[in-house]
Amino acid sequence: MTFEKRSIGMIYVYCIITLGIYFIYWEIKTKNEMNKAFNANIPTGWLLIIPIANIYWLYKYTECFVTKVKGDDDTALWFILFWLVGIIMPWIVQTELNNLADNPQLLQNRQHGARYCPNCGKKIPFDAEICPYCAKKFETYL
Ligand SMILES: [Zn+2]
Q1: Is the pLDDT of residue 90 over 80?
Q2: Cα–Cα distance measured from residue 30 to residue 55, given in angstroms and rounded to the nearest whole number
Q3: d(CA 60, CA 62)
Q4: Which backbone phi and psi does 43 adopt, to 5 degrees?
Q5: How far is the CA of 127 from the centre of ligand 1 (A)?
Q6: Cα of 120 to ligand 1 centre, how many Å?
Q7: What is the DSSP string of 95-133?
Q8: Which of 14-18, 58-62, 65-69, 90-94 has the lowest mean pLDDT?
């Protein structure tokens, strides 16, 4: 399995017990999972302990999370949020990662950066309810 399912409550418990060290461990673990799943290039976690460089690291992490995991393009908004209120990060990020861990089909769609019609195999929009090529109707979509 590419993404490990984690209890969000336990992440916060571990963070409190370790006085925040677990938070860094969690950031690096999830960074490695995203790099692997999406062939992404979030840099080494060592940057987290270097001032300024850690801002760059957070940006790269957020960019991968937003564009690959969520499939959105509002990186700047999430980056500012994560920077100002870092405490929400495990909650927001792990929710999405757990979602991918539970839905292999969704993960596959995200990995391909697209969704494919099961009938004609053409690349179609994520939210299409009808295939624009073969007009097949979809009961549900992921
Ligand atoms: Zn089709």
Answers
A1: yes
A2: 17
A3: 5
A4: -70, 175
A5: 14
A6: 4
A7: HHHHHHHH-HHHHHHHHHTSEE-TTT--EE-TT-SB-TT
A8: 65-69
Q: How far is the CA of 109 from the centre of ligand 1 (A)?
A: 15
Structural domain boundaries in the chain:
8-102, 115-142
- Tokens, residue 29: 């673990």
Are the CB atoms for 33 and 97 separated by under 8 Å? Answer: yes
CA of 114 to the centre of ligand 1 (A): 14
| Adjacent-strand bridge partners of 116 | 123
Confidence band for 113, pLDDT divided at 50, 70 and 90: confident
User: For 45-49, 93-97, 134-138, which range has the lowest pLDDT when averaged over its residues?
Assistant: 134-138
CA of 140 to the centre of ligand 1 (A): 14
Residue type (1 letter), 74? D
